[in-house]
Design brief:
The chain has 16 helices and 10 strands. It is α/β, with parallel strands linked by helices. Strand 9, helix 10 and strand 10 form a beta-alpha-beta unit. The protein binds D-gluconic acid and manganese (II) ion (2 copies).
Length: 387
């Protein structure tokens, strides 16, 4: 029996804000004592994580003095080293402070927009200092409760202006960042702009530096919108734009839950892991989740270990599925190749003529077997551990 220990090649990461979450929710205050970035690194080192990510203010409080900031950075760098952790990704907190109550890059106030860009430049400096090469943009407050309050077209233009400016800043500083946009349909705003990953995939080609920009899809966010997350990730992968991924779990139709990876929808989690492994995704696998509000720090460790272990187990299950002779033979039956397929690969008048003359009998075609019941049951049996 394999031990399913976290494999550093899979780059399992956690944010300071994830294992450091103190369990506050809209109905109640904290249930866990806050622990410092150094203590979080120790915890992550203990459970075997590969890296740690942060928002600027997870590491350095927004009101810290320059002296305090220097001390915090020094301690953090030591904690990274002591625990063998790297920082693959950094991001900006553009949502907690009251200044961002009506958005950051899309605020109606030009001075708030300028402050948001300035804060991001400083946070990019901080991320680069810690070695981050991926910079995430999650527009938590970029949205509205009422469309009376902001012009949605103007908001897209404002967001583009900010990103174009920041791409050029990264280039001018030689930071080598790749930007990853994270979509979410709602929470904390009633309606957040760029609601799904596909919205960003359409936005990226309109930027000055599309080659620097990709996406950071999150399981919970697409599930909140009732969408198939695996398909969103597939679209990003196919476009060469999957730069980062936020793994967690979420019941459909509920509040933003940020559950442990695989906790709620095991079958979706399986197909997600299978997709990432089959297509050799090699970016960080970031668990943007937090432990249940009932957890103490021992249970927080169980949560972090559980995220990684579930991924490792599902990876093994995906390999088993790919090696299963019966499953493979069913896949062969289903995926029928035929020389006619070559004709539609490329349009030419000769191919158009060939296709028009091809004897394609719709009644016979509809009779071809599609043993999907059998295939799905075998998949479930792999997952349930009886194969
Ligand atoms: C959320 C988001 C955030 C972002 C983070 C990084 O629902 O709150 O998932 O956790 O991922 O701010 O930008
Ligand atoms: Mn989220
Ligand atoms: Mn996230």
């Amino acid at each position: 029996m394999p031990d399913f220990a976290p494999d550093s090649k899979l780059k399992f990461t956690f944010g300071l804000w994830t294992v450091g979450n103190i369990g506050r929710d809209p109905f109640g205050g904290p249930v866990r004592e806050a622990i410092s970035p150094v203590q979080i690194c120790d915890l992550l080192g203990e459970v075997g994580a590969y890296g740690v990510n942060f928002h600027d203010n997870d590491l350095i409080p927004i009101d810290a003095t320059a002296q305090e900031a220097e001390r915090i950075k020094k301690d953090f760098k030591k904690a990274l080293k002591d625990n063998g952790l790297v920082v693959p990704m950094a991001t900006t907190n553009l949502f907690s402070d009251p200044v961002f109550k009506d958005g950051a890059f899309t605020s109606n106030n030009a001075r708030v927009r300028a402050y948001a860009i300035q804060k991001t430049m400083r946070a990019m400096d901080l991320g680069a200092e810690m070695g981050a090469k991926i910079y995430v943009f999650w527009g938590g407050r970029e949205g509205v409760e009422s469309d009376a309050t902001k012009d949605p077209v103007e908001s897209i233009k404002r967001f583009r202006e900010a990103i174009n400016f920041l791409c050029k800043y990264s280039i001018s500083q030689r930071y080598g960042y790749r930007f990853a946009f994270e979509a979410k349909p709602n929470e904390p705003r009633g309606h957040i702009y760029f609601a799904v990953t596909g919205s960003y995939l359409a936005f990226i080609p309109t930027l000055d530096h599309p080659e620097m920009c990709g996406v950071n899809p999150e399981v919970a966010h697409e599930h909140m919108a009732g969408l198939n997350f695996v398909h969103q990730v597939a679209a990003a992968l196919e476009a060469g734009k999957l730069f980062h991924i936020d793994l967690n779990d979420q019941e459909f139709g509920r509040y933003d839950q940020d559950f442990r990876f695989g906790q709620a929808n095991l079958k979706h989690a399986f197909f997600l892991v299978k997709l990432l492994e089959d297509y050799k995704y090699n970016g960080p696998r970031h668990f943007d989740a937090h432990a249940l509000r009932t957890a103490n720090y021992d249970d927080v460790k169980a949560f972090a270990r559980g995220c990684m272990r579930t991924y490792m187990i599902l990876r093994e299950k995906a390999a088993q599925w790919n090696d299963d002779k019966e499953i493979q033979s069913l896949l062969k039956t289903i995926n029928q190749d035929d020389p006619i397929g070559r004709v539609t690969k490329k349009f030419s008048s000769a191919n158009a003529k060939k296709l028009l003359g091809a004897p394609l009998d719709r009644v016979k075609l509809a009779e071809e077997p599609l043993p999907y019941e059998r295939l799905d049951q075998l998949t479930m049996e792999v997952l349930m551990g009886v194969r």
